[in-house]
Amino acid sequence: MNEFTKFNLVEIKKAFDEKKFSAYELAQAYLDRIEKLDSKIESYLFINKNATSDSFEKTGDLAGIPVAHKDVFNTDGIPTTAASRILENYVPPFDATSVARLKKAGTINLGKLNTDEFTMGASTETSAFKKTKNPWDITRVPGGSSGGSAAAVAADLCVFATATDTGGSIRQPASFCGVTGLKPTYGRISRFGVISMASSLDTIGVITKTVADAAIILREMAGQDSHDATTSNATVPNYFTELQTDLSGVKIGIPREYFVEGLDSKVEKVIREAIKNLKKLGAKIVGVSLPHTEYAIPTYYVIASSEISANMARFDGIRYGPTHEAKNLIETYFENRTRGFGNEVKRRIMLGTFTLSAGYADKFYKKALRVRTLIKQDFDNVFREVDLLATPVAPTPAFQLDEKIDDPLKMYLSDIFTAPASLAGIPGISIPAGFAQNLPVGIQLLAPQFEESRLLAAAHAFQVSTDFHTRKPQL
Cα–Cα distances in Å, from 81 out to 4, 20, 123, 137, 153? Predict the structure, then answer.
């Protein structure tokens, strides 16, 4: 099998310049690897068999680079199901803005990647079609909801993958699978054409093999979009040229609230060692406090579920997916949604409907919005003292398949270290930092809004000083 499927984006661009192989050969090598290995990992929901023919005459900064898209990104002429029966066989007539920008940059679409249904989950087990496995141990989850994206990148089944992060859905699977996961600032990348979960939280990002790759891709995807009023008109810098290998003078805060009971001792050891490495690179390590962190999970799930309840109302099983006939229109809705949605989607719709209902909206939803403001203020205050924050990504390494699927509360607590940044709308990244129980563990770096250059520079400095990102699962 061709070794160049293991190359990262920077290495591939160099190999193309040196004419070591062609875009056609690279696309074919990935299709061959997917055919051989994905039955074990189950990361793909749809494979684009035309990827090799699509590789000809590509232009742009990412010309000939094979990408795979999380199956909530609309892709013109290619199925987009959100891993749900209610959108089964839906083929959109247009590309999401982020997909269109990558296509314009010359990427080749290898296919669509598995996700938790409508991105609701932390393990990629709520998908209606298959359960993706962790390439490091196929008895364990890859994380979620972007588990298909993380697993595919870790198993070298694509060069990079698009992903979404609403409460940790890029960073947590990146940690579990030993790859790099970037959640930019809310509004840095357009959400247009990406199926919504919670509109005030959904953030578009990427999962890559290296920080340098993420920097290159972010520049292509970021920027204002007339189709998405939440996008920012802030200048998009050349993130790649701003990468550094020295952290001298950089102040990194370590929030005490992220090192609490429930954090696996082996994970904590990895994170503490990573912090020591940041210090060796010149960073000044400072203890800080984010006092409202303990309220992040209930706040997140009240707000997210409320927005889910509103966003899911449009899916009735009539225009898309299998329609189940009934006596009247109301019964048709009930029948279609009962059969079309999985348990987790139904659970969150019911929770959100309750928190928005008369007599409870003030008690739950509006109170959660006020607490969200306090959580954001915590970050604003601490970033007056430090440049970045360093924390664990998840309290444990990847857990066993089926271990938490029947216990929603345990599953929701997987987001305990990632949800606060989502509520604040700040950028975060997970990078490989070591291993616990022979499983990858990532460290999370966080930065102020629209300071992706600062975030990527520090992450790159750490990454090039270690070799964790170069290690591959045995498949």
Answer: 31, 37, 18, 27, 21
Contact call for residues 140 and 166 (beta carbons, < 8 A): no
Instruction: Tell me the C-alpha to C-alpha distance, in Å, between residue 223 and each of 25, 60, 218, 305, 441.
Output: 32, 17, 9, 28, 31
Kindly list the catalytic residues.
Answer: 70, 145, 169
Contact 263, 228 (CB under 8 A): no
The hierarchical CATH code for the domain 3-248+394-470 is 3.90.1300.10
Q: Which residue has the tokens 């805060």?
A: 253
Would you tell me how many other CB atoms lie within 10 Å of the CB of residue 435?
16
> H-helix or E-strand containing 180?
strand 180-183
Distance of alpha carbon 202 from alpha carbon 422, whole angstroms? 8
Q: How large is the angle between the packed helices 296-311 and 367-382, nearest 10 degrees?
A: 130
Q: 3-state DSSP call for residue 200?
A: coil
- Full pLDDT tens readout for the chain, 475 residues: 478 899 999 999 999 999 999 999 999 999 999 999 999 999 999 999 999 988 888 899 999 999 999 999 999 999 999 999 999 989 999 999 999 999 999 999 999 999 999 999 999 999 999 999 999 999 999 999 999 999 999 999 999 999 999 999 999 999 999 999 999 999 999 999 999 999 999 999 999 999 999 999 999 999 999 999 999 999 999 999 999 999 999 999 999 999 999 999 999 999 999 999 999 999 999 999 999 999 999 999 999 999 999 999 999 888 877 777 788 888 888 888 889 999 999 999 999 999 999 888 999 999 999 999 999 999 999 999 999 999 999 999 999 999 999 888 889 888 999 999 999 999 999 999 999 999 999 999 999 999 999 999 999 999 999 999 999 999 9
Per-position DSSP letters for 107-159, written without gaps between them: -EEEEEE--SGGG--SSS-S-SS----BTTBTTB---SSTHHHHHHHHTTSSS
In the block, tokens 């509006």 appear at 366
The DSSP-derived string for 380-400 is HHHTTT-SEEEEES-SSSPPB
The structural domains of the chain, with segments of one domain joined by +, span 3-248+394-470
Place of tokens 């989502």: 422
Q: Who contacts 263 (Cβ-Cβ below 8 Å, separation ≥6)?
A: 392, 395
3-state secondary structure of 357: coil
Classify residue 231 by its DSSP letter: S
